[in-house]
Please model this.
Amino acid sequence: MLAKKCIVCSKSNLTRVIELGFHPLADTFLKKEQLLTPLSTYPLNCLLCKNCGHLQNEYFTSREERYIESNYSYTSFNSETAIKHWIEFFNNVSKYTNLSTSDHVIEFGSNDGHLLSHFKKKGVKVTGIDPSPIMTSQARKIGVDSIAGFVGKDTISTAIKIKGKAKIIMGNNVLNHIENLKSAMDGVVQGLKKDGYFVFEVPSLKDTLEKYLFDMIFHEHVSTFSVRSADTMLKRYGLYITHVEYINYHGGSLRFISSLNSSDYNFSLVSKFIEAEEKAKIFKPETYTKFMAKIAKDRNDVLAKIYSLKKQGKKIAAVGAGARSNTLLNFYRLDKYSVEFVTDASMHKIGKYTPGSFLLIKDDTSLKKENIDVVLITAWNIGKYLTQKIKNINDKLEVIVPGEKELL
Model:
C-alpha cells in the first residue's frame, strides 16, 4: 500500500528522499524448500514529512505478512550487548517510575518475553502483547503471560481485564514498526493508570542520517522518529514527554518516558533535542541527497574490495544475519558468487537462507572449518563483540567494515 499521508501528523505534504530499490521482507529467513517459490519484493523508498519532520516508508507491506505469515526470527536477547541493554533499561525505568510489586507492566512487541522476565522476577504483574505466535509461545515457556495479537484497544483491554490498568506500558523498537499509530496509541492511553508512564525506544533519525545507517531502513521498520516527530505524535494522544535521552543502542536510539499529565511536560529538555535536530538539518531534503551519495560510494568501494579479493582467490563470508544485514546485502547486490555464506548465533536462523541474496546461514565455527580468509561485518552495531568472537575462532581473518563505520 502506498502512503498518501504522514502516519504521525496525517498531513499529505510528503517528499521522497531515499531510494534503496526493491527489497523482500528483511526479517524473514527462508527454509530450503522456500527457495523454489518466487520471493515477493517491494519498493524500499522513504518519504519526509515537511510538516512534522517524520521519515516513513513510501510503501507499507501487510503487517500480517511481516509478523504472522512469515518465519519471524528476531529475538530480543540475541547478543551480550542486548542482554546488558535490557538490564540497564529495567533498572533505570523501574527507578524513574517508582515501580512497586502491586503494579502492572504491559509490553507490546514483547517478543520472547526477555525484558518482561526482569520485571516478573521483581514480583511485578506483567503482560506481553506480540503479533508473532512463535514469539508469544517462547515467552509463555519462561512464564511470561503473553497475548498473541497487535497492540490496540482489544488486546490492551484483555491485558487490563484481570490485572488492572498499567503503571508502565512500554514498546521498544516497536512504534517504528507500526503504520497505524492511532490504533496503537489509543490502546496505550486506554491502558494507562492516571499516574502511569508510556516508555518506548526508537532508532534515532539524527543518528541514521549522520552515521549513514541506511541498513536501519527495511520494510518492517515502517518509519524513523526524531524527537520532533515523537513529540508531535504523543501530544496528539494527550501524552507529554517527561524525559528523553540518547542511548547507544541499534547504532543510536532515543528513549522516551511520557505521562498523561501535561504539567509533567519537560519543555526545556524537548526543545534542546529539537534544536540539535534542526542544527543537524535532518529535516532538509539536501541532507538526504548527501546521504544517498555517501551510501552509493560506500557500496562501490566495498564491491571493488570484494571483487579484488575474489580475483586473488580469497574466500569471503559475512558475519551477522539480521534484518539490517539483509538491507545491506540486497542494496550491495551481494550473493553466493561474491560471499560464501553468512554466520549467526541464532538457532532460529542457522540452516535457513537470507532473503534476496539467498545465502546459507551457518554457525560462526564454519569460518574456520571452511577456510574463510575475509569476513564482511554486516551487523556492525555489535561489531566489536563479533570481531573479538571471530578472532577467537581464527585470528588470521581479514575484516571488512562497510562504510568504515565505527564498530559498537
User: Anything to note?
Assistant: The longest strand covers residues 192-203.
